[in-house]
Q: What sequence folds into this?
């Protein structure tokens, strides 16, 4: 199990093998419990899907079971915001790892309402505010959903309305973050409009195969091999990947880079989207989380995958 590869990579065997190794550990970690809809998800599930840039899918376990993508949606709303506003978004949001909890308010005060990066909650809320320009909240929710369906080339993707409603009913911290930014003049729209969209984007349900397909443009220089359409420029894909690598795993981003070495974005639903540039898009899901709020078995599975394929961006 080492990063040296002379033989061709047998992905089917690697994916099946990782699933077999995870099976005895199913149920490890702590399921997110801040809303009942996530707390009652069976923790003993694990799905893995690897889609190579020629569109070939290798999957194992519960790869076809939909789960709440939660913060993984932030990688896609960032893509939309860059498409709509270009580099000017960096006036509102930074590009540095935060080193503090995903929903921290302390840093936001010290930095006058400019969130550290687009993947902590405050930053993602600021990004949603930017893409709300010219739309009603309802239109934007539809646009985000259509974007994911388009990327995954799959019209079956839906929003879990119960999750969205629960997020709204319990999202006091997010309400505080949004109002705090508004008080600094760093939010253009009313907090309830922005959060209405944010809670729905977090509540999108996708399975590993759909998610890996949706992320494929990031592995393929900005162009989706599924449709042949250019989603973003090559340079932009590279930059989104850079942000995912440095900021995509809450305050466990350094640890993820150390162990896995791939750009990735995780969510409290237990999903992780990882990108092996030039090679494949990978989605893994297992609901039990580690102490940083990242999928415990998901992180472990990606470590094994990156090691066995040699796909770490740091591998020589
Ligand atoms: N809806 C969650 C929140 O905003 C997302 C958490 C996450 O996946 O990081 O608190």
A:
């Amino acid at each position: 199990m080492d990063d040296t590869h002379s033989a061709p990579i047998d992905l089917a065997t690697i994916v099946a093998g990782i699933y077999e190794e995870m099976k005895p550990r199913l149920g490890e970690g702590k399921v997110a419990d801040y809303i009942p809809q996530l707390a009652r998800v069976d923790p003993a599930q694990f799905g893995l899907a690897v889609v190579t840039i020629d569109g070939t899918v290798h999957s194992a376990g519960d790869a076809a079971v939909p789960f709440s993508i939660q913060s993984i949606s932030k990688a896609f709303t960032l893509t939309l915001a860059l498409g709509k506003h270009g580099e000017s978004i960096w006036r509102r949001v930074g590009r540095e790892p935060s080193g503090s909890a995903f929903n921290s308010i302390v840093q936001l005060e010290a930095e006058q309402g400019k969130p550290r990066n687009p993947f902590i909650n405050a930053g993602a809320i600021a990004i949603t505010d930017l893409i709300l320009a010219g739309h009603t909240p309802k239109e934007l929710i539809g646009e985000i959903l259509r974007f994911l369906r388009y990327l995954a080339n799959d019209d079956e993707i839906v929003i879990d309305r119960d999750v969205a409603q629960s997020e709204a009913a319990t999202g006091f911290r997010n309400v505080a973050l949004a109002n705090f930014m508004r008080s600094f003049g760093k939010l253009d729209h009313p907090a309830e409009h922005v959060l209405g969209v944010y809670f729905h984007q977090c509540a999108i349900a996708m399975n590993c195969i759909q998610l890996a397909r949706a992320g494929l443009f990031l592995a393929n220089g900005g162009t989706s091999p599924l449709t042949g359409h250019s989603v973003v420029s090559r340079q932009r894909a590279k930059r989104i990947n850079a942000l995912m690598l440095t900021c995509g795993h809450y305050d466990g981003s350094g640890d993820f880079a150390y162990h896995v070495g791939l750009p990735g974005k995780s969510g409290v639903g237990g999903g992780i989207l990882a990108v092996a540039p030039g090679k494949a898009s990978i989605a893994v899901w297992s609901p039990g989380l580690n102490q940083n709020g990242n999928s415990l078995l998901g992180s472990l599975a990606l470590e094994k995958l990156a090691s066995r394929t040699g796909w770490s961006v740091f591998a020589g």
Observations:
- The longest helix spans residues 137-152.
